[in-house]
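Researcher: Here's my situation. A collaborator sent me these components and asked whether they could plausibly form a single complex. I don't have experimental data yet, so a predicted model of the whole assembly would be a useful starting point for our discussion.
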Amino acid sequence: MNFQLTIVKVGGQIIEEPDALKNLLKDFSRIAGYKMLIHGGGRMATELAEKLGVKSRMVDGRRITDEETLKIVTMVYAGLANKRIVAQLQALKVDAVGLTGADMNVILSQKRPVTDVDYGFVGDVKEVNIKALLEIINQGYVPVLAPLTHDGEGNLLNTNADTIAAEVACSLAGDFNVRLIYCFEKKGVLTDENDENSVIRNLDRELYQQYKEEGIIKAGMIPKLDNAFRAFASGVKEIIITSAAGMNTGKGTYIK
Amino acid sequence: MNFQLTIVKVGGQIIEEPDALKNLLKDFSRIAGYKMLIHGGGRMATELAEKLGVKSRMVDGRRITDEETLKIVTMVYAGLANKRIVAQLQALKVDAVGLTGADMNVILSQKRPVTDVDYGFVGDVKEVNIKALLEIINQGYVPVLAPLTHDGEGNLLNTNADTIAAEVACSLAGDFNVRLIYCFEKKGVLTDENDENSVIRNLDRELYQQYKEEGIIKAGMIPKLDNAFRAFASGVKEIIITSAAGMNTGKGTYIK
């Protein structure tokens, strides 16, 4: 029987509010067994870009990453966001190690080809280094992944944190019973975005398709849910979409 | 017999010039056996601080680190500088892993007490986690250390890179034959700062004392040399102060 590994993905909004982050990390520290954290930081990056007079351009919620923007996200994701989390986890006796995809060659990606849109220095995941992740997890360390990967040719690439969480979960599904928890600002996937209590308890592919067609599940949620269903299809045992407060309560939307 | 471990410290000036950095990393990749890199980044931090309108204040070459400055050095040291180096080393087939002192609790420090000067969020090294460093080195990874430590209570602290290099070298001197190479902008310790060819070949404590008294070795070099002599006294086998180009040539100043 495999051991359990809990992979938690937290969005940018949570990690930039000191009190919310503190609570979240406290909850994370209470998760028993092997675990891993993957964080965003987009809003902090937008804020720094504004201060530096670099324009943030988004297409379908994805950041166009030119050279200046790559510097900014590297500073924010791998620097400020990642190391703050690591230092706070250490204070909670969680032996965290902050990594980008370049560190230990953990996630190799390729620059997204230019089609209608040139996303710039954005990477699509090519390979997760299972061996390296297993080594550090089995030694008792808790990886904290920043949403940056590398192309193996010396370039860092900006990569969506939801996607990284799903890819890592899929890759480790053969070695662990993987639970994947997406924490975001809502209590789960809602049927009515104005009603926090309209959380869908169980969401399977059929219902997902139906809700998409009916316009109940809208554009913003679709990439996250596509990642979640891909993880489910790859053998990830449990996938929950919930709020930060829902991490240990069992509440939220379960992907089936 | 112990294996050899080469610890290279590179200053901020080298790492911010793309071509100089590329050459340096190529030289570093050629070092045989176990190795580790420790980098600065002060000039990049000063540049970012200027852009953000945050005033850089230095006392005796050490940066006063208030809250805003701590954010800046975290972004630059742990983010931009560290991850660029890691990505480029990966391209050179060096399996690098970028770490601050908070990651794997590698370097615990304490906030410097306020005396005449309040340095702010500056840490003095308390303990190097030999076990964690040995684990990753023995697995074939090459640590790339950013000059940040943590206090174990959730705070990152700015720590001088020369000091980190010396502390890590001292801590590992029992497990490896440690060579410590300080790369900076000169060819070595000079008797005449305007003559690049006036490199002191061998420098022992007695000569160091004499040169200090005669004003031949000046304030700027003293903290670096004090670190170097401390490392020598702690059993570090070879300590060289040299230029980036001198890394593999055997040229430079040898501390005896």
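Model: Some features of this prediction you could bring to your collaborator: Chain B has one domain: 4-255. The interface with chain A takes residues 48, 51-52, 71, 74-80, 82-84, 86-88, 90-91, 95-100, 102-105, 135, 139, 141, 148, 150, 152-156 of chain B (CB under 8 Å).
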